[in-house]
Amino acid sequence: MIQKKICLLGASAVGKTSLIRQYVEGIFSKKYLTSIGVKIDKKQVKTDKQIVQLMIWDIEGIDRYCGFQAKYLRGASAFIIVTDQTRSQSLVEGFDILKMVQEVADIPGFLAINKSDLPASWHWSETELEELKQSFNQFFDTSAKTGDGVENMFSHIAKVQTE
Amino acid sequence: MNSVSLGLELEADADMVSSMLTAINDFVTDSFTTNAGKAEQNLDVVRTDDFTLLLKKGPKASVVAAITGNMPQDVANQLQKTLEEIHSLYDKELDDFDGDSIQFENSEHQLRDCLMTVLKPDKVSRNRPWMAWTLVLIVLIGSGFLLFKRWQSQELIEHVSLIDKTPVILLTNIDTLGLEKIQLEVMRDPAAQSVIEWLEQQSINSSRVIVKERAYLSLDPLLIKHKVEQVVARHPSVTANWIDNRPEFNGTSTNLNKLLLQNELANLIGLNFQPTWLDNLVIEGTENKAANDPELIRAILDLNIAKIDRVSIAFEPGQSELSEQAIEKLIEIEQQFSNLVEVAEQQELSMGLIIMGASDTVGTASFNKILSQKRADNVKLKMQELGIAASRLNAIGLGVIELKTTKEGARKVLFNVIYFDGV
Fold first, then answer.
1. How far is A106 from chain B (nearest CA, A)?
2. Counting Cβ atoms within 10 Å, is residue A75 exposed (0-12), middle (13-18) or buried (19+)?
3. What ipTM describes this predicted complex?
4. Which CATH number do you get for residue B68?
5. I need a surface site. Which of B38, B224, B285, B368 has the fewest CB within 10 A?
6. Across the interface, which of A3, A38, A57 has its CB nearest the CB of B101?
7. Alpha-carbon distance A91 to A84, whole Å?
8. Which residues form the domain of B82?
9. Rounded to a whole number, what is the distance in Å from the CA of A161 to chain B's nearest CA?
């Protein structure tokens, strides 16, 4: 079994923690996020080749009050930036975070466009979609509420890790 | 990469714990790194009520031990050893690590070694409560014993303090000494009973008492009585009756013994002896026997010489004339001296009287020298008149007796009887 560290990043209140709550085996309470800024969960994903154990580092929301903790990225194999499709501002912040990550680590990044169960506040233009494809390895529409797209996203990430 | 556990009921998820520890370590580094040094902080020990997490960080991997109960002393060393072993055994694997922990499965042996080693001191620590209780018990018994001994000493001190009424043994200090002894500092007249006797009289065990004794002369009437009785005891034919703290001597004695007794009593300080106290003694026998013993004769001589030596003739300031009292004294001295000369001749001793004149500090030195000589000469003349051969008399003027305290008393003529073998 191979083990990989995946970091979950994003602006505040985009639903990072909720996104994985149903999906992972967690032992640590949510209060770790507010105390030390990170909560760790794990999930074993079976790919065609082997089982991959994902150690998912749920990192505190990044905003103007809370800076980007580059240190938590150390040793990570991939990262997911979560955005909230009901708030376009979260996408702008997501891109800011992406830049900061790319400055310290050269690892594959994925975009989760969360709250897909709610109406979107923005629509992609052709150029925006092009930019997305260039910036991220892959992007997914997810819903923490219904669980749609979550498993698919982690399976894809696990698969990428074994290739 | 790997974990082993020793019967922990709640087996923690090693993967998540190690990840979380890494996160906490990062958190600590970010929170507490000083501005001056950007060096990374490393968690070393994390302690809770029941658990101790001991972390050893190496260049490529870390070893963490979760310890329940007390942390054995060498566990840190063992962890360090294990960490080094893992680094040397899996050097390449650590370099190439891509998240696949299967290559580290064998590291379980190294980790288990660590567990085994830690178990042994654990057994020893289980014995500790028993040993500790024994120790506590010993300490309790010991301190109880000490308290008991101290209490006994205090009792003894109280007992001794209460009997501090003997007039001739003065208790100056009393204190405990060591475990069960007490130390007495006393002042005792050498004539009094010994301190040990004194203690035993009060039924006090003297083996527990250390006595530091200093001599002093007691004027206590009780002790003076005791001293007189000691003197009388040496004269079996004499008894002493006490009337109003004053002795009266009865019995029989020879003249010699009477003299010896008189001398001994006169030497008792604080008695204020008067020769008349011996008037009741019946003198028996002759002194023939005594007269044949030169040593006794010498003793009598010395006693009588001392009497003359003690006499002094006083003069008015600047005067060398003899007063009436002075002449009376000289008559007495002449008689005593004549008797002495008689005895001395019998014993073939040559006897003389030195007459020493002295003056006070008033006036010049030369005047006083002449005055003192004149006083001595006048006494010598009077003695000659009274019948002492001039050859036995020697008058000397001492001049001023230079003692401030003698200003009044220095206007005197003093006597000194000398004798030596051969007439």
1. 15
2. middle
3. 0.75
4. 3.30.450.70
5. B38
6. A3
7. 7
8. 14-126
9. 10
